[in-house]
Design goal:
14 helices; disordered C terminus; binds protoporphyrin IX containing FE; 320 residues
Length: 320
């Protein structure tokens, strides 16, 4: 297994947990004014999911830092433990993790300690958004400057709002036994949110893809980065077809119990494919060196910084 695939497999559950907590908590906040089924009831049916995802974020994040440090020093995970303090103080990735790790503890506490549901939901949404921003600062976009990082962050926010709306509708409807009126209202809200999230996703995705590939068909068709992106967009197109059927056939008839049932089933399938396949391919993309020679985001970019500055040459010294 290559280092890129290894890191993608490690980062995938972290990104899935971040976009899901951000998206479902934000959707519950958006639906908070619903008289028929209030925020507290909606949040209660998502609490177990939030606690599991918060634990995943808290446990996986230090492993990602260890993986990055091992990659920079060119040593095994066990041998990398001793370099973590140096990596944290002397590299860009390390400085980002200096903020990232404490926030993962606050997210875990916000999900687990007893809090008014409106406070908990707001904290989870905001803290997950901050971690998504830090994730964007760890991405390839960092090589392309502030605008690229901002667009990358917007891409992740659009992912979270789309997946979060689908998952919150399905989980609250299935686990929270809300009145049918809530499902009807929520289904219409999800349809609107999904429409605008997809527009934002395609626009921000195209810009970020241009940063990684340039306008180069050869890079798109024959580089690992280009082929991973093509696979991701193909799966995304498949999910869009399900989404279009939901939006134009089922959502207008959501008052009818049979249409509502089919809609909820389709929403379940959509969110599972998005989380497992599309976000999985996105994590592989984010950990594959872009085609136009831009160095691998965490490893080589740091290496460039390390080799450029003699006082930091220590890290390379440890290469076996
Ligand atoms: C036309 C559609 C899309 C295009 C062109 C696109 C393109 C991209 C590109 C180029 C990246 C940056 C990878 C890097 O770091 O170099 C990215 C990241 C990402 N994309 Fe997309 N994307 C699209 C749709 C989607 C969809 C539908 C989802 C999920 C629902 C998604 C989820 C993500 C995530 C989570 C990341 C960040 C991965 C990470 O940082 O680990 N994208 N996308």
């Amino acid at each position: 297994m290559t280092a890129d695939v290894e890191r993608a497999l490690l980062v995938w559950p972290l990104v899935v947990s971040l976009v899901t907590i951000f998206g479902t908590a934000s959707f519950v906040l958006f639906s908070g004014e619903e008289e028929v089924f209030d925020l507290r009831a909606a949040a209660a049916s998502l609490l177990t999911l939030w606690r599991i995802l918060a634990a995943v974020i808290f446990l996986v994040s230090p492993l990602v830092l260890l993986n990055v440090t091992a990659d920079m020093a060119g040593v095994s995970w066990t041998n990398a433990v001793g370099f973590v303090p140096e990596a944290v103080t002397e590299t860009h990735a390390g400085r980002v993790f200096e903020w990232f790790l404490p926030i993962t503890l606050v997210i875990l506490l916000s999900a687990c300690i007893s809090l008014p549901e409106s406070i908990r939901t707001t904290m989870l949404s905001l803290l997950a958004a901050v971690l998504l921003l830090l994730q964007a600062l760890l991405s390839h976009a960092i090589d392309k400057g502030t605008l690229a990082v901002a667009v990358y962050f917007l891409h992740e926010v659009a992912v979270g709002l789309w997946i979060g709306a689908l998952l919150a509708l399905w989980m609250v409807a299935r686990r929270g036994s809300p009145p049918d009126l809530w499902v009807v209202h929520a289904a219409r809200r999800v349809s609107k949110l999904a429409f605008w999230s997809v527009i934002a996703l395609v626009a921000t995705g195209m810009y970020t893809a241009y940063n990684g590939l340039g306008f180069d068909l050869y890079h798109l068709l024959f580089s690992a980065y280009g082929r991973t992106l093509i696979a991701k967009v193909i799966v995304f197109a498949g999910v869009l077809a399900i989404g279009a059927y939901n939006r134009y056939w089922l959502a207008p008839n959501v008052g009818d119990p049979a249409a509502r049932d089919t809609l909820l089933r389709n929403v379940q399938v959509e969110s599972i494919i998005l989380l497992f396949a599309v976000v999985g391919l996105a994590s592989l993309l984010a950990n594959t060196p872009p085609a136009h020679g831009m160095s691998d985001h965490v490893g080589h970019a740091m290496m460039a910084m390390v080799t450029a500055d003699p006082s930091r040459r220590r890290l390379r010294k440890f290469e076996p």
